[in-house]
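Table S2 (text version). Query chain:
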Amino acid sequence: MKLEAKNLQCTRGDRELFSDLSFSLEKSQLMMLEGQNGSGKTTLLRALCGLYEPDEGEILWQGKSIKKLDEAYRRELFYLGHLNAIKPDLTVLENLRFNTLLAGDSVTDEALMQALGTIGLFAFEDFPASQLSQGQKRRVSLARLLVSKANLWILDEPFVALDIAAVELLQSIIAKHVEEGGMVILTTHQEVPLTRGKIKRLSLSGGSIKEQVGVNA
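Corresponding structure-token output:
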């Protein structure tokens, strides 16, 4: 598996966010996307998901344009944005079931219940989402990671609204996915010691690109 970005350029209004951006990510790799607010991190993540069209350049999955792959690429992708993507009028279990089906994954209710228990929502399956706290709503979204069959996870500020225990749990979920051959791109303003696997760092700062590859022990 390989994701490649080649000579990407993105602008917002009259301001150029970045240009000539090229990088690659392969199986068992995690990339931390860094940069100041307004540097284009969310724009880049949305472009990698096919939700935003770069002004120039192309994004390839397994050597083929994601625009041509379309649904075949989307099945390989799990995207978590700033919003939790849950419906307030559905229960916790119904939300998880709905989003799983929407992603094209066939998962039993038993597996969904197990995911909710693991993420810290045991006995909340019949609660309407409208009655949950922000942290609990975030956990509902993150429970999708536990049942997702996607190889590439793109996570925009996934640790927001989580307590210390939930942050540690999410770190372990991400690390396990990478260890098992998955790929992760994430951005976060929180210091989180993801301590296993290959770590790549891509910095968007003033239009310049800095890529650092290292291995954390």
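Notes on Table S2: The mean pLDDT is 89. Residues 164-179 form the longest helix (16 residues).
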